[in-house]
Predict the structure.
Amino acid sequence: MVGTLAACGSSGGGQGSGDSKTVTLVSHDSWAASKGVIAAFEKQSGYKVDVLEDGDAGQAVNKAILTKDNPQGDVFFGVDNTLLSRALDNGLFQPYEAKGSEQIKAAYRADQDQHRVTPVDTGDICVNYDKKYFADHKLEPPKSFDDLVEPQYRNLLVTENASASSPGLGFLLGTAAKYGDDGWESYWKKLKANGVKVVDGWEQAYNEEFSGSAGGKKAKGERPLVVSYASSPPAEVIFADPKPDTAPTGVAEGTCFRQVEYAGLLSNAKNSKGGKAFLDFLLSEKFQEDMPLNMFVYPVREGAQVPPEFVKFGPQAKDPETLDPAKIADHRDQWVKSWTSLVLK
């Protein structure tokens, strides 16, 4: 999607900000916002923002790093905690503490000494299951990572390539958090022996291979377990016509890894003043409360309301797996390399 947005207010000048009234937002393909919210901020601020979608999260981050000396835009949205260190270590962002940063929940803050990134949203990467499949087969759906290697779940799970896909990498990191440096490879050997299927990305996994999604049903997907998000079940309800009383899919809560997405002002941004104003907008209550039904993620702002469908069908995991960003930075590339050798070869 390439569209026109608006940024709220303006704060601080910067080299290259000039009189430009166009801000370019670079993002992964899942960026979305309501037209009404956008229009209100466009009218208020006068900044028009071109949106450049640049593939999945990993692809978009890598391209932004390669073009950092002459960036494609002013603000980048969509780097998450699994890839954050790569962006920071490569000097992708310049410091800016966005207005409203004090309203961000403490658990989601990062880079507090330099403020090179602004947390925008959070979500849980979890295994989803097809309720009808498990009811028809009189089989309890899995609840945990341990369950997934049990023989009754053989050939049922599809996941994404951890070297190319954000949820795939999040699932790998979840297993590393759960089983530790000495145990995660052994776990994946068991998962591979139990018939896990690996595909390139989320779209293929969820909308083609997974039997529980609307897209998967049309594609005659045969896998009743998929690595997706805790917010996928409410999406199945919201987009259904007619809307069902209950979600057709559920979440195995013991398989969740918490993801946080950030935005930042790109180094060498041509319109840093407009970029800063746009970052302020991303933390505004109006945008934070608009976001769940557009990108199916949770707000990071204290007190921001979430839709009732999220509360009913897609609550956040009570005890998700997490990893310190420094540990991810130290081990991610080696974990992915080992995972690739172990699972794909």
